[in-house]
Amino acid sequence: MKLSDFIYRGLVKKTSKDLQLAKSLYYSTESDLKFLSTLSLNEGSARTIMTSYYDALRSILEAISTLDGYKMYSHEAFTFYLKEKNEEVIAEKFDRLRKIRNSIVYYGKSISIDEVEEHTREIIKLIKQLKQKYIEQEMK
Question: How confident is the model at residue 129 (pLDDT cuts 50, 70, 90)?
Fold first, then answer.
């Protein structure tokens, strides 16, 4: 599958670059990450914290795609968008995290505190890489 398949199916739309939306998404993500870092991770909060960190990663990807003139209506499309940007490793990590998030949200799967700690560290690292490579120069 390719990003063009998602465009053909109407799950991604080509738009014009929207710097203001990208900035809004970027700053919202920064605020969300700051808030998430204050939460206490325990058995009761693990699922919510995991899905919230995933949402922060997806939001950064939305900001980047907005800068490239795309509106995504499918989380899966981000995997192929990243592949087209030659970000194979990040694409695979995102897709794995997307599947974990979906199993929690749609299938009621539980997740351990250790898993959440591991995944959130990975997500924070991915967000930092993506911001440095694709967003911070645009924000100046």
Answer: very high
Q: Is residue 49 part of a domain?
A: yes
Distance, in Å, from the CA atom of 24 to the CA atom of 31, rounded to the nearest integer, reads: 11
pLDDT tens digits, 49-99: 999 999 999 999 999 999 999 999 999 999 999 999 999 999 999 999 999
The answer to whether position 140 is within a domain reads: no
* Closest listed residue to residue 6, CA positions, set 88, 62, 79: 79
CA–CA dist 124, 140 (Å, integer): 22
Structure tokens at 113: 């505190």
112, part of any domain: yes
If one counts the domains in the chain, the total is 1
- Burial code (b: 16+ CB inside 10 Å, e: under 16) for 55-92 equals bbbbbbbbbbbbbeebebeebbbbbbbbbebebeebbe
The per-residue pLDDT of the chain, averaged, comes to 95
- Whether the model pTM is above 0.70: yes
State the residue range of the domain holding 77.
3-135
Task: Give backbone dihedrals phi and psi of 14, rounded to 5 degrees, phi first.
Answer: -85, 125
d(CA 80, CA 32): 25
